[in-house]
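I am writing to request your help with a piece of structural work I have in hand. What I wish to show you is a protein chain and, alongside it, a tokenised description of its three-dimensional fold. Could you please explain, in whatever detail you think fit, how the structure tokens follow from the sequence? You will find the record immediately after this paragraph.
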Amino acid sequence: MAPNTDIATRAFVVSLKAPCSGKTTNEFAEITGLSVRQVNRIYARAIERGVDPNHGLVVILDSYLEDAP
């Protein structure tokens, strides 16, 4: 996970980056103040942990976004 990125910001990134949002990764980075790499890393980790980006309903659980042990 991106250092010093709180769970609320991570949830925001995952919800914005969902295919239904229509925004680019560069736009997410600009909106959140994170780097493109951080945005991609947060989103990839969430998918590894169970986020289904192709599901019509965006479901975000804390366990998808928590710091790695």
About this structure: The mean pLDDT is 80. The two ends are 11 Å apart (CA to CA).
